[in-house]
Every structure is written in C-alpha cells, then in structure tokens.
Amino acid sequence: MENFDRQKHWENIYQTKQINEVSWFQATPETSLDFIRQFNLSITAKIIDIGGGDSFLVDHLLELGYKDITVLDISEGALDRAKQRLGDRAKIIKWIVADAATFKPTEKYDFWHDRATFHFLTQEEEISNYIDIAQKCIKQNGIIVLGTFSENGPKKCSGIEIRQYSEITMTERLKLFFEKIKCITIDHITPSGTIQNFIFCSFRKLEII
C-alpha cells in the first residue's frame, strides 16, 4: 500500500474505538494461554507479546505469576490504555513502541507470542525482516507462536489487506530457523458477532550447528 502510514492508522484506531469495539477483543485469550500452558514456561521465562496493544493477555500473564513480560505495539496510544488499566502493575511490564517488522531487540526471549500482527505484513521485505528479527532474539530452543487469519478467514482487518496463512504456508515461511510443533484452527467471535477463522502455529527455534 503506497505511502501508507501504518503507525498513524493504528493510533487513529485506538483513539476512536473502545477496547470492546475492536474485532480482536478477547476478555480471556484462551488459545494463547493454552499454548503457554502447553510449554510449561517457568515464571522467570522472558515473554514478549508482539502487537499486544491493550490486549488482556498481559493481565492474565501477571495473574499466572510471570515476572519478565514485554509488550510491543506500533501504537503508543494502545500501550497507554493498557498501562492505565493495569495501574501500578504496569511498572512490572517492559513496554516497547515499535513496528514489529523493524524493531531492534535488546534482549533474547524464551517465548515470542503474536496474535494477529504477522498477517498485516504483506510485503516480502517486511515478512523477511520480521522472521529475521524473531530468529535473532529468540533463545536457542525458544518458542514462537503465531496467530493469523487462515485461508478461510477474512482478507482484510481494520480496513487493511492482510496475508492469509495455512499450516503449509506458515511452516514454509519459518522453516529456515524454526521447527513446527503444532498448528490449530479456531473461530474467533468478534464483539459484533462475526466469525473469523484463525490459524495458530507453534514453532521451536532450530539449534544452530
């Protein structure tokens, strides 16, 4: 999309819509939490939520006792809303305002979570950059979980075209650096009652020989 200002677009979304008015709203992100339970992460594990915005995942991670959580989003306004909701607990979290395709990590993570950010990257350079960033800052044998619209899901979200994925196409994109663990498809029901089909895949970072 020529001359598209992604950050400005998302700042506008968060300035004009309440948390329960956006299509991705989940009071309890069960699928994401199930993946975290599956890998039995230590409470000291370094977790990053890519495109976390004002998602409630961070609230649930805190309730589960996790102590090293980073939330990244392109929208400062979204993160400000999450901070306001969390109150004093927000001080525990590391907040990063950045584009997921260009940010420069300063830490290595045990668990990289991304629900519905990756599919907004439609240009080849952005996708390659994202995967390169992930493989560089995920620890050896660390986990990445990606949730995107499936091939049966929407082709647009919030007025922006997205890239749909299947188990095959997502695995193909990540195979140089990550080994697939499992993929599942789920139906997400938006606040307006629309059904969106997602695919979630988990991968383990390959050992570098």
Task: Walk me through the structure.
The protein contains 6 helices and 9 strands. With 209 residues, the chain is an alpha/beta fold. The strands form 2 sheets. It has a 7-stranded mixed beta sheet with strand order 3-2-1-4-5-9-8, sandwiched between helices. A two-stranded antiparallel ribbon has the order 6-7. Helix 5 links the parallel strand 4 and strand 5 (138-149).
Strand order of the largest sheet: 3-2-1-4-5-9-8
Model regions low in confidence, pLDDT < 50 over at least 5 residues: none
Task: State the distance separating the first and last CA atoms.
Answer: 39 Å
The secondary-structure element order is HHEHEHEEHEEEHEE
Q: Helical segment tally?
A: 6
Give a summary of the structure in a few sentences.
Helix content is 29%, strand content 29%. The protein has helices at 6-16, 30-38, 57-63, 76-86, 124-137, 167-174, and strands spanning 46-50, 68-73, 94-97, 109-115, 138-149, 156-157, 160-161, 178-189, 195-205.
